[in-house]
Amino acid sequence: MKSAVGRKNKQGTEFEGEYASLLREYATGGGEAVLGRAYELGRRAISERKSLLELVSLHHQAVGQLFQSSDDKKFQEHLLRTSADFLSECMSPYEMAQRGFQDAVKALRQINETLEEEIKRIAYSVHDEAGQLLVAVHLALAKLAQELPPAQKEQVAQIEGLLSEIEKHLRRYSHELRPTILDDLGWIPAIRFLAEGVSKRAKLPIHIEAKISGRLPSTIETTLYRVVQEALTNAVKHAKAKNIWIRAWLKDQVLHCSIRDDGEGFDAEAVQASTSRKGLGLIAVRERLSAIGGTLWIESSRRRGTELLIRLPREENHVNSSSAR
Ligand SMILES: Nc1ncnc2c1ncn2[C@@H]1O[C@H](COP(=O)(O)OP(=O)(O)O)[C@@H](O)[C@H]1O
Ligand SMILES: [Mg+2]
Predict the structure, then answer these.
(1) pLDDT (tens digit, 9 = 90+) per residue, 110-157?
(2) What DSSP state is assigned to residue 242?
(3) pLDDT range class, residue 322, cuts 50, 70, 90
(4) From the CB of 221, is ligand 1 less than 6 Å away?
(5) What's the 278 CA to ligand 2 centre distance in angstroms?
(6) Residue 176 class from Cβ within 10 Å (0-12 exposed, 13-18 middle, 19+ buried)?
(7) How far apart are CA 130 and CA 290, in angstroms?
(8) C or N terminus of the chain, fewer CB within 10 Å?
(9) Residue with the nearest Cα to atom 9 of ligand 1?
(10) Measured distance CA(292)–CA(218) in Å, rounded
């Protein structure tokens, strides 16, 4: 650890030294070629994970030192004029990285929207097409039963009973896949509907406390629904939980949603850092949230279970703004 810190400091001072000497070169007559090197220095600053604030403060320091190193008024004036160009050039890789990030977020949003459309299509086709096929099977069986002796009629009735069960499950799954409630009433009622189904199937209580009213833009509501859906699936599939709690509240203009279970817990850091991971659920959750400006925090321990905490700043979520829909 000590040596890592030492290395970092050495790297930091090397960078500062190079910055100051390149700035001096530029201020004492260096032209475009020096600006090109300033750009490269900016790229290096990014790869060395320097923040913009660090870069600006380092720049101020370098300018101050150069300014004091000479009494020549002309040089001082020239330095002040040119140093701004130098800094902009050095910062332009940050600008490009920022644009790249915005493009990636936009692409991610589009992918999610396409995915959502596909889910809708599958949900409707399970509901409508599979539903219609089952109705046809029911009719065929009823016709067949008419021609059968009573003992076999009983068997057909049993098959019909099973078919009705399948129909019920298919209808429920297709609704949970993309609940119409989500569009009609919003994410909280949709989550209540989802939780009711999961709770019945998994035979565990899901406690919901939601102190939020009003609607959010539909992309945000869909994202929140998907995140809670994945969290519930994980709690049922992996945690062997006895209870699940879902809470949603607004605090300091930030929407919070927590999904907690009292199950076995897991090593969240190791799972998230691992490249050999099998599951993509938590990665997808993080990416979906990042596409809408939200963040995910996971706390898990072997004894106390797992909590997923979603935070979404108000400017991103437009709480109560029905016009944003
Ligand atoms: N609530 C939870 N309780 C216990 N373990 C969990 C929980 N959520 C996630 N995990 C662990 O994290 C891993 C990754 O989860 P995820 O990314 O959703 O992928 P998947 O569910 O497809 O395995 C899971 O395989 C499981 O080991
Ligand atoms: Mg999962």
Answers:
(1) 888 898 889 988 988 888 888 889 999 999 999 999 989 988 898 999
(2) S
(3) very low
(4) no
(5) 10
(6) middle
(7) 35
(8) N
(9) 234
(10) 11
Return the amino acid letter for 300.
S
Query: Measured between alpha carbons, how far is 47 from 273 in angstroms, rounded to an integer?
Result: 20
The b/e string for 228-259 (b: 16+ C-beta within 10 A; e otherwise) is: bbbbbebbbebbebeebbbbbebeeebbbbbb
Residue identified by tokens 């995140």 is 227
Pairing of the two strands 254-261 and 244-251: antiparallel
- List of residues 6+ apart from 15 with CB closer than 8 A: 41, 44, 45, 48, 50, 58
The CATH architecture that domain 182-325 belongs to is 2-Layer Sandwich (3.30)
Please state whether the predicted TM-score (pTM) of the whole model is above 0.90: no
Of the candidates 200, 218, 233, 229, the residue with the CA atom closest to the CA atom of residue 317: 218
For the Cβ of 232 lying below 6 angstroms from any atom of ligand 1, the answer is no
